[in-house]
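Treating backbone geometry as a discrete language has practical consequences that deserve illustration. Part of our work consisted of pairing the sequence of a single chain with a tokenised description of its backbone. What the numbers capture is local backbone geometry rather than side-chain detail. For completeness, the protein is quoted in full, as a sequence line and a line of structure tokens:
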Amino acid sequence: MSKLLFSEFKFSTKDTWKKQAEKELGENKTRIGSWEIAPDLFVEPYYTGENLEDEAISNLQNCQKKNPGWLNIPFISFDKAWPNNAKLKSSLESGADAVILDLTEMDLIKSELSKTLHGIRLSDTPIFFRTSINSENLFEEISRGAGYYLKGGIYNDPLANWMRTGNDFEEATENICKVLNQTKLMREFRPFMIESHVFHNAGANVVQELAFLLASTVHYLDKLTDAGISPLHALSRFFYSISIGTEYLTEISKLRALRFLYRKISRAYQVPDELCNVFIQAQTSTFYDSAHSAETNMIRSTSEAMSAVIGGCNGLSVQAFDHSFKHPIEFSERVARNVSSLLANESYLSAVADPGAGSYQIEMMSLKIADAAWELFLQTEEKGGLISAFKQGFIQSEIENSWQKKIDDLNGGKIMIGVNKYKSEVDSVYISEIDSSKNNFTDFLTLPNRNLSTTIFKK
């Protein structure tokens, strides 16, 4: 910005702004206080340009997404071939740019998958296959007759599945290596993903979510490079799948912090910055979904989706408002898909590569979250890495503390629309039936996948 622009105004320091705010607030000036976004991680109520003079802010900005826009990626459940085929085509004609297809048993896939994908060119349309099935066998099925080049990927994190269920992940990692070698020339096909959902849905705060996500990333990189996969190949061919929660500014900052942390990992493996760009698929959280005021989920997911695109996601999946407790209806799926379309076509957020750039508050929050997450990541590595830390109960214990704080905040007056404020009469009756003495709202939420395999790995 030219120094002559608005030159008639004197430069104001941060202290000047503070004095003016205190003057205008008068006796309410105590409201100018910091707030906590994670345990012992505080941010100030406002920042100024002086705060952005730190070189670390410049480094963080350089890591952000360079190209505007994102893919609208709805979920579609795999059921019967021809109805699925019609739904896929309808979604792609009605705003979807890609699809995440939920798959089930392998025998069903072998007999039905080719029909489901009939008329859809996988070289043009990215299809992500959500499954825990052997990725090598799955790739063999989806590549049959699909041509030499595929887009999309396999939506599966074996390590996260192990933390949920205790199922072995070693064989799955070997299969990922094989598919990485088979798809070496398919630069837009990503054979595996690394997710934050297993931590987010168990109650992790943003710092824990990113720290343990980094630990997962390093575990995979070590395994893959030991198997002969180059660091560049491994780092450029997976994608992150991230849950986006209800804390609007914090979630924007979380995604920006993730790109900064990813760059620190890629540099540690000596991969040139210009060759290493991460793909982030963000999806609206189900952690705070209400099972008894489902339409509220629509409004909440819209705010979460806006955080995702301002934070710089490459792909956005908006969950249907009823998906947590039943098979979504066509209406709820259409509304979810259209949230992304509206943000892209009517808000024009798709015209800007990094909408959050330059916001003093967001820049500082991003850096603070990144620094705190890196510190916790290093603590996890000191305990032997993710696997060892999980078996020791360190990860479960850290997340349990965060979970309890979320519930205490909710019971202590933290506002959630439709849950503890602006409830309908039906909702109020339901809550009073839960526990009128304790006013406990946890049963009023869906709270998916909360256990982190506690039945298998005791703390």
